[in-house]
Amino acid sequence: MQTQQITHTSKQIAGLALKDVELKEMTETCDQRGSFTETFADHWGSGIAPTQWSMVRSEAHVLRGLHIHQRHDEYFSLIQGHCLVGLHDVRPTSPTYLQYALYELFGTDLKAVIFPAGLLHGWYFYTPSIHLQAVSESYNNYANDDNLGCRWDDPALDIPWGISNPILSERAARFPPLSELLVTSAILEV
């Protein structure tokens, strides 16, 4: 009996194509030993200059975010599991200001979401997952003024997560609504 292999495609599933956001396809080269995948290279011209790489494991039903950084760009690539990546543009000078994008990623279809500073971002994991994350400013240099967030489920974000009651960090559970974040931070000056 043959087993049918189900393939899933990592792609944007809702919202607009946000300015300066790239869903980068990767090529996995396979042979009898396993596989090799280039996960980042300067020649891609992606606009991010990573200074720190991290590998993050998440349990099922975890939502990380929504965070925003005004000084550094980010790279996210799911290497195992199934997740959603939600972005919301709060850059006042951007043509996609106050618009969102939602991506569904599968570890079996390697792609990277690469985006600039000024985008609210969060990730929800359907299954236990592992992702690679790179930032253009080292974690030890993050400051309170550049590690902000808002409620993941704020209706003003308009992100159709399609989930309820995710597992959040204590800090994320206390994040303010988007309107409060925009008023009490310097985001409007970006």
From TrEMBL:
Q: What does this protein do?
A: Catalyzes the epimerization of the C3' and C5'positions of dTDP-6-deoxy-D-xylo-4-hexulose, forming dTDP-6-deoxy-L-lyxo-4-hexulose.
Can you name this protein? dTDP-4-dehydrorhamnose 3,5-epimerase
Pfam families named among the record's database cross-references: dTDP_sugar_isom
Top EC class of this enzyme: isomerase
Q: Which domain of life is it from?
A: Bacteria
- What InterPro entries is this protein classified in? RmlC-like (IPR000888), RmlC-like_jellyroll (IPR014710), RmlC_Cupin_sf (IPR011051)
Q: What is the lineage of its organism?
A: Bacteria, Pseudomonadati, Bacteroidota, Cytophagia, Cytophagales
- Enzyme Commission identifier(s): 5.1.3.13
Recorded catalytic reaction(s): these are: dTDP-4-dehydro-6-deoxy-alpha-D-glucose = dTDP-4-dehydro-beta-L-rhamnose
